[in-house]
Write the structure tokens for this entry.
Amino acid sequence: MDGLINGLYGIPLLGILVQFVGYIVHIVPDISPLLLQAATPLALGALCGVICERSGVVNIGIEGTMLASAFVAWIVGVTVAPLLPADPSPIFGITPTLLIALVAALLTALLISLVHAWLSITVRADQIISGTIINIAAFGVTGYLFQLIEKGSPTSAGAFTAFTPPSQLVQIPLVGWIFNMFLNQGPIAMSVIVIVIVMQVLLFRSRWGLRTRAVGEHPRAAETVGIDVVRLRYRNVLAGGLLAGLAGAFLTMEASNSFQTAMTQGRGFIALAAMIIGRWTPLGALGAALLFSSSQAIAQSITFAPPGGDLGTILTAIPAQGYDMLPYLVTIIVVAGLIGRSIPPAADGQPYEREAAT
Amino acid sequence: MRIRSTGAALFAGVALIVSACSSGATTAPSVAAPTTASVAPSTAPSTAPSVAATPAPSSALKIGVVTDIGSLNDKNFNEYTYKGAVAGATDIGAATPGSVVPKSSTEYAQDIKSFTDQHYDVIVTVGFNLTHDTIGAAKANPNTWFIGVDQAPCVDPTGADDTKFACKGDAKTLLPKYISITYQEDQAGYLAGMVAASVSKSGTIAAIGGTSLCAPCIRYIQGFALGAQSINSSISVKTAYVTGDFSTKAFGDPVYGKQYATSFIAQNKPDVIFQVAGATGNGILDAACSAKIYGIGVDVDQFLSYPNADTCIVTSAEKHLTNSVEATIKTIGAATAVGGPQLFNASNDGIGISDFHDKTSLISADLTTKLATALAAMKAGSLVTCPATGCGVYSK
């Protein structure tokens, strides 16, 4: 803290800023693939939130859906691994086991989303409560089963491996790191950018997107022009669930290779924050997820490769918790409306009751 | 309007998860002696005549083990401590120890109590996490022996756990039957550092600790650096700590550990990395394997406890849990035991490094000799494995 105060008194802020930018430019090429990796579960979770909330269903249960899918991906992988050939394919290290585990994760997520959809659309229960139940149940059930099955020493069914982009591409000055960031990835992280772009186009340029937004803004009006609100909401919640499931599979099949109790570590909640900061748009959500992951990555770099000079003194004087707090701080600032306004769909979270036929 | 409710729900969700986390199920623990462990107390005929002449020892001591969360065959702290208790019981002719595996950290206290209620004479508690509840139980049951494995109690003048770490009380006199087993991690780290420096081709090696608040982690790493320098005086040892607090990131988040280590490796470019970060460290080993560099495990033989990373684990800096628990139980059986901290190091076979398994070909004859010499010097007490000032103290 002393260092920080002295630093603030003694140094021109502009110089510090220039140094800081220089430091970022220096470290980013080394850590660029990591930025997308850390952002992947956040971005996928946020996309789940975007699809659900754009059609008017709040989904707080992303964390739980992710956790359950992560668990199922792992347990199915470990179970079927001895029965299947294990030669990984040269691309992404894909094995039949991993594909089966991935499908199992997605089905799990689909099932959980179906419960959420049924509770919040058909039964018209409080959507927040429904999501919270999913979180608590997923936490308890996976934790219990994990202890029952796992017996302490982590077993693994392997994991997807990263694609190695050609070095000529990565070494292009100035832009090589961008290729490295998006191509030096496993299949799930690599698919994120595609999913985001497709979703962005669909949401704002397709009939489905228009209907989804209409249902989220004014379901009654949508219904009067012949849109089946209930059906569309069901479809969107299920589609969102698939994305949360993919995020879960990423945790146990790509980011690591085994399960750990409560391994989502709040990523499902940070995903919701990313959705809000991204203003309920797919591209915004990815941007917010990258903002969070890069603040984390830069904080990490400061701990083991701090910049020299006054900047280093200042940055290392900030305790690690200060950096950990950044995503939440940004969320609070955005939610409070201090930087722009982040306005959710008007009918977000409101159960829709079909008008009685007269 | 809606923003607020989503934000509030987000917050409520986090709060609920946290509370769900801390209020685990409270089912009654079942004290059961596993049937797999050998029960017969030295009834088998001995081949050594001198031993055969003396009668088989027998002891009425009832020994119970409260492990940490997980299982009894975790190839880690729980398993090796329990094995030590079984071996110790066999040595003194006591019945096979009972064991309880708590299902959550909220059950530690009641699981210890289930043994004290049944008037067990020796209760072994496994690992740092049980320190608080072991202190409480030792204070409440002054006539019961407690063996706390890898615990360094810090008590206030009344003998209660001092959560503010002022440590004004003397645990040894206040809790005279609480034996807290500690290890000289720097010696194990030193040996691991020698291996790392000798295996390294680039001349840059690294060590990552879980949190800068963990003194044993720091000692491991300080020893590691000195050991590495003893092989190659110009070696560069990069060190880092995943976090500066006791959050889950420190020891319980392998996904974060892998990301952290991947970033660390990309920037510091070591070719051997030593993990001192529990389950977070398993992620560090994964990162090492992905980056095709070598990894060194910690506390137990991680080639066995974490087979996921077998392709890159060279060795592990080990605490000889089984030996130390066995030896401590023997002192209780022989009525020579004294309470208070009990340090295990090279001189009483309390530390070492693991087998090299399939990496034996990397180990030169020269290194084998040097390792043996260093171990002998540690036993003799003539080898410095930790900085004279600031051993176990974090400095930037």
